[in-house]
Specification:
The complex is a heterodimer of chains A (about 120) and B (about 400). Chain A is mostly helical. Chain A has helices spanning about 15-20, 25-35, 35-45, 50-60, 70-90, 95-100, 110, and one strand at about 105. In chain A, α3 packs across α5 and α4 runs antiparallel to α5. The mean pLDDT of chain A is about 95. With about 400 residues, chain B is an alpha+beta fold. Chain B folds into two domains: about 15-45 and about 165-395, Naphthalene 1,2-dioxygenase Alpha Subunit, Chain A, domain 1 (Alpha-Beta Complex); about 60-150, 3-layer Sandwich (Rieske Iron-sulfur Protein). In chain B, about 25% of the residues lie in helices and about 25% in strands. Chain B has eight helices and 19 strands. The relative contact order of chain B is 0.17. The mean pLDDT of chain B is about 95. The chains are: A mainly alpha (about 120), B alpha+beta (about 400). β1 of chain A pairs antiparallel with β12 (about 185-195) of chain B.
Chain lengths: ~120, ~400
């Protein structure tokens, strides 16, 4: 299997690209919902320590100049916003909260005109 | 707790005595007959938020809004002169709905049935074989609904005699205009449908008494040793509208690197954009009858509770921002705060529905609001006042 490209320094996240580099907030929320606690914790443990470095790397260039690897890294970090919130603030309540959260239907960016990452 | 830094004082009942302390009749929170009265007396006579100007960026931009309480579909359009107009979404020929899309951009609106075509100002431009009709074109314009824009938000009112919203808002008008909402250019949205009367749902979001029980984790920064229930610092009232000044626990510790990074990056960016320290930054507005606006630029949201029936409502929450994310940090913090807000709102759904099921059983004749649930009491008072006025008008004039 060919490793999926991420910017240099973030290769440790390659195995998380397929699931967590999802495009759009609806897809990222879906990734949160369809994974179990173990998968979410493994992703958090790998990605959270790299968050400051990832944002520093991406902030160094305007988003128009991001290549595909940068875009993947951005989406992984946006997924981390969901997963990190769950792990840091909900803890074991994540599973209990999921049905109520899913009743809050997210509109995708195409309908609101927000930027799509 | 460091007593020296304690700043919280709960609002005393004596400042709120004018709103009364009696038990509240339960029937208005579930009775279908009362809902019909409210529909006519409140919703058909009040300013209702239905959108934001950023949804209508150019001439010809439109949004369609279907409002169950009015049994009406509306077409909100930015016309060729850049004016925002609201029309009933009906062809004046035989009533067919003109627009099926939720949003878009057009230079004219053509009815699919017989091709009557209307301009963005609602005027009938053309109609096939119009000479065979017995009416003038100028008498066939789209029927209008009153519209006002405050802080970028588009409000409509079905009552032609209603006081202008700007006037009705009083001191709230400049405060709302000072929120980032007026400058907002983009938003993310989530919505929900709930088995509850609209007031029961709305009340949940205007009292903090439940905070520590329903949001023990997500609301942890809203409570503290000096304010264990997370009560507001102040309440304010302006005609039928009301609001509270929110208390934040500035000593609340960070929960982890993700939360801390989101907060730090958001504050940095908002500071650079000049959006911090605004006068309405800690204000939570409850605009009569059914919307909330949080002035805090970190979560500058609009929440509207639309009634569908006596026992069913729809909530729409939009988190607004000024400009597209300038960089990755801003995109990250926006996604984090939307995730957080959505989770908090989701946590309330089950208890609201439980409350409705309990009241709809008819088991209670009264419910009770404590001092710090005074905004719920004020809404009840305002609804009863509007319903009373309506019933008197009907008795006197038949309308």
């Amino acid at each position: 299997m060919t490793a999926i490209s991420l910017p240099i320094g973030f290769e440790a996240l390659s195995s998380y690209v397929d699931l967590w580099a999802a495009q759009g907030i609806v897809a990222r929320d879906k990734a949160r919902t369809c994974t179990d606690a173990q998968e979410r914790q493994a992703f958090y443990d790998a990605a959270a320590p790299l968050l400051p470095a990832a944002l520093a790397h991406l902030d160094a260039r305007t988003k128009e100049k991001w290549d595909e690897a940068d875009q993947r890294l951005m989406r992984i970090m946006l997924s981390l916003a969901h997963i990190g919130f769950g792990i840091e603030m909900l803890g074991q309540s994540e599973e209990d909260n999921t049905p109520s959260r899913l009743r809050m239907h997210l509109s995708d960016e195409a309908t609101t005109g927000a930027a799509l990452f | 707790m460091n007593i020296a830094t304690s700043t919280f004082r709960r609002v005393d009942q004596s400042a709120l005595d004018w709103l009364g302390t009696d038990p509240i009749p339960a029937k208005p929170y579930h009775d279908p007959d009362f809902f019909e009265l409210e529909r006519a007396a409140v919703f058909m006579r009040s300013w209702i938020v239905i959108g934001h100007v950023c949804e209508l960026p150019d001439a010809g931009s439109f949004i369609r809004r279907d409002l169950e309480f009015a049994n009406a579909s509306l077409l909100i359009v930015r016309d060729r002169k850049q004016e925002i107009r609201a029309f009933y979404n009906v062809c004046t020929h035989r009533g067919t709905q003109l627009v099926r899309e939720a949003q878009g951009q057009r230079s004219a609106f053509t009815c699919p049935y017989h091709m009557w075509t209307f301009g963005t100002d609602g005027a009938l431009l053309s109609a096939p074989d119009f000479e065979a009709f017995h009416v003038k074109k100028q008498d066939c314009s789209l029927p209008t609904v009153r519209v006002e824009v405050i802080a970028g938000l588009i409000f409509v009112n079905f009552d032609e005699k209603a006081e202008p919203l700007r006037q009705e808002l009083g001191d709230f008008f400049p405060q709302l205009e000072a929120t980032p909402l007026g400058q907002a250019t983009t938003f993310l949205e989530y919505s929900y449908e709930i088995e509850s009367n609209w007031k029961l749902c709305y009340d949940n979001f205007q009292e903090n008494y439940h905070l520590r029980f329903i949001h023990p984790r997500t609301g942890y920064a809203g409570v503290g040793a000096e304010n264990p229930f997370g009560y507001p610092i102040d309440y304010h009232f302006n005609g039928p509208h009301r609001g509270q000044k929110i208390w934040y626990n500035l000593q609340a510790p960070s929960k982890g690197v993700v939360q801390q990074t989101a907060a730090e990056r958001a504050l940095d960016i908002l500071g650079k954009k000049g959006l911090l320290g605004q006068p309405a930054g800690d204000q939570y507005f409850a605009l009569f009858p059914n919307s909330f606006i949080l002035g805090n630029p970190l979560q500058n949201f609009l929440h509207v509770v639309y009634p569908i029936s006596a026992g069913r409502s729809r909530g729409v929450i939009r988190l607004f921002w000024v400009g597209e994310p300038e960089n990755a940090s801003e995109a990250f913090s926006r996604e984090f705060y939307l995730t957080m807000l959505r989770e908090v709102h989701g946590e309330d759904i089950n208890v609201i529905e439980g409350g409705y099921r309990g009241l709809a059983s008819g088991a209670l004749k009264h419910i009770h609001f404590q001092t710090q649930e005074v905004l719920c009491r004020h809404l009840h008072n305002m609804v009863m006042e509007k319903v009373g006025e309506y019933q008197r008008r009907i008795a006197e004039n038949g309308q």
